[in-house]
Design a protein that fits this description.
heterodimer; A: alpha/beta; 4-stranded antiparallel β-sheet; 24% strand; B: alpha+beta; 5-stranded mixed β-sheet
Chain lengths: 268, 424
């Protein structure tokens, strides 16, 4: 079976003061190949922990992550990662950053150059390939990060709030780019965000997680990502289902936040 | 004290003068000039180039003015020591009350240009004689009572007044060009006015330091050329620094990457760090002797801890996202080390290297003061033993210039080699 299977994953760890934290409890997900899934939830719901487990940076205490019939035990190039910011190598040019993955594999220069040229075209950075990454704007840096991840041709792309540090306009442009890349490459993408709009636009499948313990609260199947491909995202937002769904999810998360606050107040 | 007050006065005068001139000149129209809040806004405070230039010129002016330098116009000179001819009259009295007048003529000459004593007529008829004295500026001369008085012409003959002013043993009389002290034995000690200038032996004039520099760079000092002295110091610094880095940087990396290494070496590094290298000199001499091994070991130790700590900080400074990203892109541990951790730690290592070079340069001079055959420190300590103040001063200035140049070179290398510094 190809695809990504998150099989009954739980994560619990001890704190130095003697207590323990249940970060995730019995999370199970089957993600088909080529699926675009966004994960949303209030802070502390374990969404980043889940992503780190899938990436292989953390080991779950129970359950397993299985990709293409083998168990994930650590980071590997089959699961590419795009971070919010600060993960580019500023001592390398744009081109060197993008070719980092192929270089690590020892791919011949002629071959990796082709990949790099193609990807820089796709993300629209052809004119900036010999610049240092710190000379680029935040949006361009994230384009580099996307291209760098794609250069390795991973099976799954994990995005940890990749657009969180961008301003609203750049963000909207980049959302379009993510959709375009998804459609063109057919990659499986898991995207973590705390923007409800972004989760709606960039998820065929939307998972809302709840905190304490981190678990899956609700799942949606949405048409907006498919509509957004090659279309103005502002048009998508005018769809009649869009508004009500957004309100529903906002209320859901709002209630969770209220509950956390209430629990903290009663504890104090 | 007076010099400090003068210095403050020049500082204030230059600042006010500069403001007046700057206000009359074409006003600036850059962004900073439009800021109304400058007091407290660090970005609006830039080093004023005019102030730097005036500051350096002021130091040379004060130096020149207190040494009577030929490089600056003479009206800026502080009053020099009295040089020229002077004289005073005195009266001698014996126990019977008999008195007689005498004159003392004095020539005060500079050290470099000795003069003969003035001609005087001897007066052997009375109890007071006429005396001629020659002396150098800044010195004092004892005019013996045996010369002043014809003691065999009376009993208990004494000098009783100078220039009409009655004196007794221990009195001090000002005669305008200097002071006279009557000693217990009835002799006169004359000290011409010293003025405000410094004697060559305390503070040589700038031009004599420069001429000494030219002389020593051509002929050397004590059979060692200047280039050899400075070259040896630099060679020791470089060798000690390189050895220290070769051990320190890998050690720092190990401490940044492995808990056992960190735990094992932390107490040692943290203990050795605050120990100034100079405090190790006695121990290093006992262990390694006073010659090259000892000095290189000392500089090695001085550089070692600084470079270790810099490399450790460099590793700790790698953002976890970068490490995660590299592993996700398929990097092995070795590739992570060479492609991510090493380049990421270079800014820290360069900062450490700058500090280490500064410390090593200071330490090498101190170590050479203690014992060396050749070296900048050796040169100035040897010169100080012969009171060659100009060589000492020249050595200090050269040591400062070289230390400063090393730092500038390191900074430029840093800008060239690691342009991404501070931009991560």
């Amino acid at each position: 079976m190809s695809g990504l299977k998150i099989d009954d994953v739980s994560m619990r760890f001890d704190l130095p003061d003697g207590g323990s934290v249940q970060a995730l409890k019995n999370v199970s997900l089957d993600i088909k190949e080529g699926e675009l899934m966004s994960v949303l939830g209030p802070s502390g719901c374990g969404k980043t922990t889940l992503l780190n487990i899938v990436a292989g940076f953390l080991a779950p205490t129970e359950g397993a992550v299985i990709l293409n019939n083998h168990r994930v035990t650590g980071p590997a190039p089959e699961r590419g990662m795009v971070f919010q910011k600060g993960a580019l190598f500023e001592w390398m040019s744009v081109r060197k950053n993008v070719s980092f993955g192929p270089d690590m594999k020892g791919m011949p220069k002629s071959e990796s150059n082709q990949i790099v040229e193609h990807l820089l075209d796709v993300v629209g950075l052809q004119d900036f390939k010999d610049k240092a990454v710190y000379e680029l704007s935040g949006g361009m840096q994230q384009r580099v990060a996307l291209a760098r991840c794609l250069a390795n041709d991973p099976d799954v792309i994990l995005m940890d709030e990749p657009l969180g540090a961008l301003d609203a306009l750049t963000r909207e442009k980049m959302q379009g780019l993510v959709l375009k890349l998804w459609k063109e490459t057919g990659k499986t993408i898991i995207l973590i965000t705390h923007s409800v709009e972004e989760a709606l636009l960039l998820g065929e499948r939307l998972i809302v997680m709840a905190p304490r313990p981190g678990r899956i609260h609700k799942e949606y199947r949405l048409p907006f990502a498919e509509m957004g491909v090659g279309q103005d995202l502002r048009e998508v937002k005018k769809q009649k289902d869009y508004g009500p769904t957004r309100e529903e999810i906002l209320t859901m998360i709002w209630n969770m936040e209220e509950e956390i606050m209430g629990r903290q107040e009663s504890a104090a | 004290m007076i010099i400090l007050l003068m210095y403050i006065a020049i500082f204030v005068a230059a600042m006010i003068g500069y403001k007046l001139i700057a206000a009359r000149m074409q006003p600036e129209h850059d962004f900073t000039s439009l800021k109304t809040v400058t007091f407290g806004d660090e970005s609006a405070v830039v080093s004023n180039r005019s102030a730097s230039i005036i500051s350096v010129v002021t130091i040379f002016l004060i130096w020149g003015s207190f040494t009577g330098s030929n490089l600056i116009p003479s009206f800026l000179h502080m009053p020099g020591p009295f040089v020229g001819e002077t004289s005073f009259d005195f009266e001698a009295t014996d126990s019977t009350g008999k008195t007689d007048d005498g004159t003392v003529s004095i020539v005060v000459h500079t050290v470099d240009d000795p003069k003969d004593a003035p001609e005087v007529e001897e007066d052997t008829t009375g109890i007071a004689d006429n005396v001629a004295v020659k002396m150098a500026a800044w010195r004092s001369a004892l005019i013996s009572s045996n010369d002043l008085l014809n003691k065999d012409l009376g009993t208990d003959v004494k000098v009783t007044s100078v220039n009409g002013e009655p004196v007794d043993a221990g009195d001090i009389v000002n005669i305008g060009t200097g002071t006279l002290r009557v000693t217990d034995k009835g002799s006169l000690s004359f000290e011409p006015n010293k003025g405000w200038q410094m004697e060559e032996i305390w503070l040589p004039a700038p031009e004599s330091v420069v001429s000494r520099l030219i002389e020593i760079s051509q002929e050397g000092y004590q059979n060692v050329t200047l280039a050899e002295n400075l070259g040896w110091s630099l060679y020791r610094v470089l060798l000690g620094f390189i050895l220290g880095s070769l051990v320190g940087i890998p050690l720092g990396y190990a401490m940044g990457l492995n808990s056992w290494f960190r735990g094992w070496f932390d107490p040692i590094v943290e203990f050795m760090r605050p120990v100034p290298p100079l405090a190790l000199i006695p121990l290093v001499i006992i262990w390694f002797g006073i010659w090259e091994t000892g000095k290189i070991s000392l500089l090695f130790l001085a550089a070692l801890w600084i470079m270790t700590i810099a490399a450790r900080a460099g590793v700790s400074g790698v953002g976890i996202s970068k490490v995660h990203a590299a592993y996700s892109l398929g990097a092995s541990k070795w590739q992570l080390l060479t492609k991510v951790i090493v380049p990421n730690s270079l800014p820290e290592i360069f900062t450490g290297a700058r500090v280490a070079m500064g410390v090593c340069w200071g330490t090498v001079v101190a170590a050479e003061l203690v014992a060396a055959e050749k070296g900048a420190g050796k040169m100035i300590i040897a010169a100080s033993k012969f009171q060659n103040t100009d060589i000492v001063l020249m050595g200090i200035i050269l040591i400062g210039i070289i230390g400063y140049s090393i730092d500038i070179l390191m900074r430029q290398a840093e800008n060239y080699l690691i342009p991404w510094k501070g931009k991560g």
